[in-house]
Fold:
Amino acid sequence: MINSLGIKKAPKDTKVVVAMSGGVDSSVVAALMKEAGYNVKILTGPNDPQYESKLEKIISDQSPLFIGFSVMTPQVNKAYELSKKVKNLSPNTPVVWGGFHPTIFPDETISNPNIDIVAYGEGASMILPLTEALQNNKPLDNVQGIMFKQYGETIRTEKPPLTELTDLPGIDWDLIDKDILENFIVRKNPIGDNVRSLPMLTGLG
Structure:
């Protein structure tokens, strides 16, 4: 197999980076890719002070198949900045945006020169077809639920059907650095001071 960078790699040898916004959706997407045999790394941007240096190292050392950002509107400016950094470090690495903001504002998002692909709607429905297409240098036209740039034009594919929650895997906590995961934990909350909880935001219901 040859990935989108022209490197011969099987799925298990391909590093796919998910820049996580702290939500369930990107964790589920990463778990789906891991189940399919891809080597996945989650970086928790809002919670990891070493986030940018880790991203730079992965780009330098791993030649990732693509870099994915799960973005909410308050994170847009930083995500734009990081997308530009990715392109400066590795111009041929596709930058993929998903999450609430690009779903609500897909045209605005895809117009950014440092964003190659926008996933609108549920990432779980499109992530494996998209990854397989990039891995094998196949056209993206048949990947449902995305917008992408081709020969100066923006292509929008058909919206995929909703994914049943029962068909989705659970969150794979092994994909998140343990020290960062610990920082997620809220020790004081309305339930009680001795209860530890993990707040998550998801569009999956």
Remarks:
- The mean pLDDT is 78.
- The CA atoms of residues 102 and 108 lie 8 Å apart.
- The longest helix spans residues 76-89.
